[in-house]
């Protein structure tokens, strides 16, 4: 009986398949009795502007606050790039998008990067970048570099090496003779510069570089030499293909005595692109990102340069070979010499923050139109941003990106108005913010990539590709962990000085150390946690306590006969926690300053929500608050619940908050808009 049923069922399947195949071969339409596919309504794209609540605050005013300066110049440059086919415009979903073509070889990417620079040069983008005077010109230069970086990190780095590193070295390490000879030609790309500091054997430890320069008084020339393979200059942007000149960092030996690291101008190619005698150059090869930058390696085989090519703002050598400097202490001389290099950390912190904005604008817009699953039987699918778990993934990162924007604006402001007395402050703050912003960017891009699902893997949607492009920021211009240790050492120096002199703390935001120790309420409430006073208190408490602990541990090690440097090494964990505590507190203070500058009620209200999210998610995620006892476990649980509550309150404002970034649609990925239309069959045929 069972066999009979199985046989009957098999015959029915055979007959069914035969009829289907017959209709297919005869191109017949299926009858209603043999309908293969049931009709369902297809998914369609619904712009979030039509479905999301209207903004309760002015997004244009928020953009002014976020960008901080030169909005008109930024928009001009966005428009300039959209006008040229050099920026690779593509139509997806009825919209034009511009982004580099990463399918190109590294050679092609390098070539198109130089062509784009030529276009920008021709249109006056770089006017006054080195010959301008005053903070206004510097801020405009930084604003335009922000815009370039939003399009392509390779293009921004290539320009940054030429203007900020090579050009900055000439301007700040050099004197009038160098300015007159090199700055205008650099601004006009008559010379193409690079910056040869990093070596195969030394990166962050600049004082340990092995390139050696001696002086030949008989000819009035310096002789630059690469004495061993570990001394080859490495990762030098621009060196592999395009640079004609470089600033070489080298140990200067005079009369057998090493006077420390100095900088020299050396020509490495002639006007026709031929490598100069006694110079050897090799390519660093393909990278995980930034393949539009021609990173190279350089060897100097007793290369002779005129005495005048020493950049001599800190020290000089007379024609007869005498070493001349007003700063006799080698440590102070090195500090003065390195002080101007903060521009790299400033621009990295800012570009990392804009990269995070691209990721969040793309992922959040996508999550406002993409649906998945239903929460009721036969109910509609739910927008993925309406899931609390998705809100928790993205909205805290959005708040941190707002916080970093205000921090970067503050950093730029003190940088362009710098004085010699501010060098230490700028060094410490730029080190902290560079590390914090670049770490935040990488975490944000990874979360945004995952939040976009498979679409996050597509290069044209930008988020995944940006991870490879920006990964380098964690280690160039100073390894982040090393920078954070430098921050902690500087804080310890301030602490020791204040205690020994019995004078109040002053500078680096440490004035809170002069007040009584903050007290955290034994039982936190929602209203208390949202108060700026509580947020400031708990951030200051963490920084204060960690600084005191760090000082005590270092002092204990020294009392046991260990050196100060060894004591730092042993207490690296405290140093790392302290560096983060300083950075988080400093960022919060810049947020509070930005908030205080606002008069509009609606703008102030939303900023209060975003700031509370930034502060509380920092408390929730950093185990230091529990580890060192600043929070009880009950209060930590309350903070966690408050973060979830803030997510739901910020959810209606997600679109307005990312729209306030002011990034034109064309500079985001197609999935930020009509991702259905962007993937239709006809788009493949075109």
From TrEMBL:
Per the Swiss-Prot or TrEMBL record, the active site comprises 477 (proton acceptor)
Q: Which UniProt keywords apply?
A: FAD, Fatty acid metabolism, Flavoprotein, Lipid metabolism, Oxidoreductase, Peroxisome
User: Where, subcellularly, is it found?
Assistant: Peroxisome
The residues listed in the UniProt record as binding FAD, with positions renumbered to this chain, are: 198, 237
Q: Which GO terms describe its cellular component?
A: peroxisome
- Chain ranges of the Acyl-CoA oxidase C-terminal domain: 545-669
What Gene Ontology molecular-function terms does this entry list?
Answer: acyl-CoA oxidase activity; FAD binding
Its domain of life? Eukaryota
- One GO process term, biological-process aspect: fatty acid beta-oxidation
Keyword field contains Lipid metabolism: yes
Signal peptide (UniProt feature, chain positions):
none
Cofactor(s) required for function per UniProt: FAD
Q: Which residues form the Acyl-CoA oxidase/dehydrogenase middle domain?
A: 194-303
Could you tell me which residue ranges the Acyl-CoA oxidase C-alpha1 domain spans?
341-492
Family from the record: Belongs to the acyl-CoA oxidase family.
Name the UniProt record assigns to this protein: Acyl-coenzyme A oxidase
Taxonomic lineage is: Eukaryota, Viridiplantae, Streptophyta, Embryophyta, Tracheophyta
């Amino acid at each position: 009986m069972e066999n009979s049923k199985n046989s009957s069922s098999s015959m029915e399947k055979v007959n069914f398949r035969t009829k289907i195949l017959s209709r297919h071969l005869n191109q017949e339409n299926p009858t209603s009795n043999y309908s293969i596919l049931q009709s369902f309504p297809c998914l369609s794209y619904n712009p979030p502007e039509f479905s999301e609540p209207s903004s309760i605050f002015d997004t244009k005013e928020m953009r002014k606050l976020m960008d901080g300066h030169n909005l008109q110049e930024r928009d001009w440059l966005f428009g300039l790039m959209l006008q040229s086919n050099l920026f690779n415009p593509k139509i997806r979903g009825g919209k034009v998008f511009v982004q580099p073509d990463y399918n190109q070889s590294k050679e092609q990417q390098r070539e198109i990067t130089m062509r784009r620079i030529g276009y920008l040069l021709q249109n006056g983008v770089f006017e006054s970048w080195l010959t301008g005077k005053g903070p206004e010109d510097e801020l405009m230069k930084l604003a335009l570099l922000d815009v370039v970086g939003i399009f392509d990190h390779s293009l921004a780095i290539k320009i940054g090496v030429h203007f900020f590193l090579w050009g900055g070295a000439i301007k700040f390490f050099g004197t009038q003779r160098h300015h007159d000879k090199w700055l205008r030609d650099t601004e006009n790309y008559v010379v193409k510069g690079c910056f040869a500091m990093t070596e195969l054997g030394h990166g962050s430890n600049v004082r340990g570089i092995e390139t050696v320069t001696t002086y030949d008084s008989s000819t009035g020339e310096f002789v630059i030499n690469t004495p061993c393979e570990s001394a080859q200059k490495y990762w030098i942007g621009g060196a592999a293909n395009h640079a004609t000149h470089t600033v070489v960092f080298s140990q200067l030996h005079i009369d057998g005595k090493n006077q420390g690291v100095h900088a020299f101008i050396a020509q490495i190619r002639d006007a026709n692109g031929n490598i100069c005698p006694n110079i050897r150059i090799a390519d660093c090869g393909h990278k995980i990102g930034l393949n539009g930058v021609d990173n190279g390696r350089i060897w100097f085989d007793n290369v002779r340069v005129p005495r005048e090519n020493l950049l001599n703002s800190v020290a000089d050598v007379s024609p007869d070979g005498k070493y001349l400097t007003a700063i006799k202490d080698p440590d102070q001389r090195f500090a003065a010499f390195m002080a101007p290099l903060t521009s790299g950390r400033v621009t990295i912190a800012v570009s990392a923050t804009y990269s995070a904005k691209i990721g969040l604008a793309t992922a959040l817009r996508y999550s406002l139109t993409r649906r998945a699953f239903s929460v009721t039987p036969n109910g509609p699918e739910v927008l993925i941003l309406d899931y609390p778990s998705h809100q928790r993934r993205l909205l805290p990162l959005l708040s941190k990106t707002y916080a970093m924007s205000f921090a970067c604006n503050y950093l730029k402001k003190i940088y362009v108005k710098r004085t010699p007395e501010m060098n230490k402050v700028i060094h410490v703050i730029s080190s902290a913010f560079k590390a914090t912003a670049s770490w935040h960017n990488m975490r944000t891009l990874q979360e945004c990539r995952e939040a976009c699902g498979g679409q996050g893997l597509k290069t044209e949607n930008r988020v995944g590709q940006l991870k490879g492009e920006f990964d380098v920021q964690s280690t160039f211009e100073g390894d982040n962990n090393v920078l954070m240790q430098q921050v902690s050492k500087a804080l310890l120096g301030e602490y020791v000085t204040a205690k020994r002199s019995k004078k109040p703390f002053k500078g680096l935001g440490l004035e809170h150390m002069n007040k009584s120790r903050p007290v955290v309420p034994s039982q936190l409430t929602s209203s208390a946690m949202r108060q700026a006073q509580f947020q400031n208190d708990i951030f200051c408490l963490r920084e204060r306590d960690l600084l005191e602990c760090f000082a005590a541990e270092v002092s204990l090690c020294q009392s046991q006969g260990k050196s100060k440097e060894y004591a730092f090494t042993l207490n690296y964990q405290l140093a790392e926690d302290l560096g983060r505590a300083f950075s988080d507190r400093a960022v919060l203070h810049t947020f509070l300053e930005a908030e205080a500058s606002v008069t509009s009620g609606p703008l102030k209200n939303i900023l209060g929500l975003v700031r509370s999210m930034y502060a509380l998610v920092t408390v929730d995620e950093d185990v230091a608050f529990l580890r060192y006892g600043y929070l009880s476990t009950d209060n930590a649980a309350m903070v966690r619940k408050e973060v979830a509550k803030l997510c739901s309150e910020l959810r209606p404002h997600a679109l307005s908050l990312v729209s306030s970034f002011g990034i034109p649609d064309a500079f985001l990925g197609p999935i930020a808009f009509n991702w259905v239309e962007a993937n239709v069959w006809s788009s493949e045929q075109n």
